[in-house]
Amino acid sequence: MTVSTPLDLTHSWWDQVQGKGFVLPCCEACERFHFYPQPACPHCGHAHCHAVQASGHGEVYSFSVVYRAPSPAFAGDVPYAVVVVRTDEGPHLMSRLSVTDMTSIHIGMRVQVAWGLMSAHPHVPVFVPEETR
Ligand SMILES: [Zn+2]
Description:
Blueprint: H1 11-18, E1 23-27, E2 49-53, E3 57-66, E4 80-87, E5 92-97, E6 110-114, E7 126-129
Antiparallel strand pairs: 1-2, 3-4, 3-6, 4-5, 6-7
The structure holds zinc ion.
Zinc ion is lined by residues 27, 29-30, 32, 41, 43-44, 46.
């Protein structure tokens, strides 16, 4: 699988997640989180946002299980789950959910970020079912 090349705007986010820190952009004016990194806050338009350590927890907002690889690059991955996660901080992001039983996935399922599950791209955050505390 290929991962797109980071833009100047997203370099700091990728740099931080490579250190396994799950961060989200946060506006210095309204203090609301958003995702993906943007040149200005999507809530208030303020130009200064900074990365803040996030919990890494959230819930499945939507998902789809892929059984047929969209290209030969994904043939070794199927079946896999593509999810939209609503983070506890608010922003939604698309990722993968790593589970062995695809039928266990459901809307509202608690999940947490994990690292190293995509062997070719260990710095890409994916999600796993939340550990019970
Ligand atoms: Zn703002």
